[in-house]
Amino acid sequence: MISVPGSLACTDFACTLNRILPVACRHRDANIGRAPCSGIPLLSALLTCALLPGLVHGCNGPDVRTEWGESVDEDAPLHEVTIHQPDSLTGLRASTTGPDGNPVSLRCATCHDGSPGADLARRRVEGDRMHAGLTMEHGELQCASCHSGDSLDQLHLASGEPVELVDAFTLCAQCHGPQTRDYNAGSHGGMNGYWDLRRGPRVRNHCIDCHDPHQPRYPDLVPMPAPRDRFLHRGRSDSAHGTHSEPTPSSNDGHSTDGGNR
Amino acid sequence: MSDTTPEEHGRGAVTRRTAVKAGTALLGAGAFARAMAPLTSFTKDITIDEFLQKHYLELDDAHLQKVLRRLEKETKDEYGADVQISDVRPTPGVQFGYALNLSVCTGCRRCADACHHENNHDRRTNNSYIRVFELSNGSLDFSEGSVDYDHTVPQPGKFYMPVQCHQCDEPPCVDVCPVQATWKEADGIVVVDYNWCIGCRYCEAACPYHARRFNWTKPEIPAEEINTEQSYLSNRIRPQGVVEKCTFCLHRTRKGRLPACLEACPTGARVFGNLLDPNSEIRRVLETKRVYVLKEELGLKPRFFYFFDE
Lengths: 262, 310
Fold this sequence. Notes:
The complex is a heterodimer.
Chain A: E1 8-10, H1 13-29, H2 41-46, E2 81-83, E3 92-97, E4 103-106, H3 143-146, E5 154-156, E6 162-164, H4 168-175, H5 177-185, E7 191-193, E8 202-204, H6 207-210
Chain B: H1 11-23, H2 29-40, H3 48-52, H4 61-79, E1 84-86, E2 96-101, H5 110-118, E3 131-136, E4 158-163, H6 172-176, E5 182-184, E6 190-192, H7 202-206, E7 213-214, E8 229-231, E9 243-244, H8 250-253, H9 260-264, E10 270-274, H10 281-288, E11 290-294, E12 304-308
Parallel strand pairs in B: 1-8, 2-12
Antiparallel strand pairs in B: 2-10, 3-4, 5-6, 7-9, 11-12
């Protein structure tokens, strides 16, 4: 957990909203075609025509570009939000591929006919051949905390109530309340598609898209290459104009060292 | 050039030329050279139409359409790509806000990479509107932070802070522009008219988040990699010598879609939406999380927030 760095000031929500709402209302009432500078009090105060005669665009006449575009119907029916269903929720992905080029997916019951369940609680499969690569690092959980002994196509809640594999979400939710709450509020787990459901649908990731149920720690990632940014060399030689940034290994195209963006 | 009507020049062109002259003493030599270039030679890069074009806000629909078609043609000529450049205006009732969960971000830079491709940045410099800082826990000393780390992430004892344009409600970058080539739009997005910008870089210097970028060279992008869905105020390929910035992907977000950096985030750390909608995800973050503003003491009233999980 990160401790809060000193100069990240905590903002009061009420404050934040109070300042944005009035701005928004002003804009909503504004006449179409008004100069944008007049909508921004500070700016118009600073850049008056008197200060900079002839230089300031927008002081000579009305703007024609509209301030707002088309509205979206407030009562438009909302598009759907779907949760992505990973393939692993429908069976075991084999390493062989089928005729369609996709990995063969075997239902658990193909091999587990219900008999092996009895001592699920004590078994571990680390190093076994069938489910090779499966490591269990999820608190102190045992296989039987989640899988049902009688039918491996099913999971179960703490109450014993069965949960289909495809409903694994419910399983995670029972033990991870805060993340599930945040997920439902849209601040955990990410999304794709439309922020505005009046205009299009949205797809949410499944918990297990990001967290392997057996080893849920979010994996380490190799970062994408950093922008070759003049900012990198700040403090070294960034005096006034004509900064000379070090040529980067990949800028071997003969451009001047000013070639970086900043 | 031939389809330029008298109305397309006029006040606007005079205004900018006056500004160039008036600004001479203030401009850096490089910017000055670039600004003067059109007066001495009309190169392929800067056509007379482009130079005489009015300010975006003063273009009526008919003229803007002409400008858009001209820019599309120029892109075809110079980059070999068939692009569609549109003009998307703000949606009534929408005020954009963005929040980022520092408890979840692992610093993988997928956001910066998505920005690079979405916004047609120069491939050579791998430019992006997002810079990700690796900082030590409990510290916000950016001079000690790294932006070019290349080990796996996250590292123990570190946290990661992506920084992009905060779309301030009191934008210092807008205030300093001598020709009003940059302004704040009704939905909160600060934009640049790249055809009006004279490249003086005052705005870049004024931004405490270092969120603006300057095109030192003509952007290089192979035709097949160009994102063809473009808009005038956002991701069209910018000319050399102008300043550019993050627009919260207005060509997407004004049509209801999520920004490219959010969709690319594999950790789900980013939350975007309409601050006026009480049921929006962004509102719920602001109402229920510990929310922080970077450099709040400057009083710039950003639209970008950071938060932590409890």
